[in-house]
Amino acid sequence: MEFKSTRDKSCCRICSRIGHQSLHNSVDEALLLKRKAEEVQFELNGRCIYLVGMMGSGKSTVGKILAEVLGYSYFDSDSLVEQAVGMPSVAQIFKVHSEAFFRDSESSVLRDLSSMHRLVVATGGGAVIRPVNWRYMKKGLSIMLDVPLDALAKRIAQVGTASRPLLDQPSADPYTAVPTLNF
Ligand SMILES: Nc1ncnc2c1ncn2[C@@H]1O[C@H](COP(=O)(O)OP(=O)(O)OP(=O)(O)O)[C@@H](O)[C@H]1O
Ligand SMILES: O=C(O)C1=C[C@@H](O)[C@@H](O)[C@H](O)C1
Question: What does pTM read for this prediction?
């Protein structure tokens, strides 16, 4: 695969509006990730990749890049649960049913995925708390995205906590709530 340099004049005109350094950092990170994926492609031998990590740790962002480079299909397990339950959001599933109901459905989704090949799966932030989920994920390769809590809180604060059932409490702001989650 050929990588086109983005450090040309038109790129920098865009950067001058949205923050040159941060855009170049994310381009560099994506490029590095693509190169690493190419390196491990043949050793994977079709095994699935499960991305685990706290909410906002970058599982979807990284997962889509990995899937594209590896020629894998990308799935988000939260979205699959929403489809299976027939509800538009995790927040609604928690509210109408319960977290336990959501977790049961999440385990069924992971069980079904575990019999497949050539998938990159972005798991839900809380998928790691159930041992049975690890039994399913062990059939592939699991990768933890370990992001410092203050960076996570900053990312979550940028989009708000309304769609985040575990953080959407009257007293909770992400800077104090994220470190209290027991994952
Ligand atoms: N390496 C990174 N550096 C800075 N910001 C990032 C990085 N990766 C992702 N982000 C940003 O963090 C936010 C969350 O990313 P993303 O949706 O990929 O996380 P996630 O782990 O899939 O979240 P969730 O599990 O809650 O769905 C997004 O706004 C994304 O642009
Ligand atoms: O958005 C949220 O608040 C959550 C979504 C799912 O990933 C869950 O796994 C997580 O525990 C909470």
Answer: 0.82
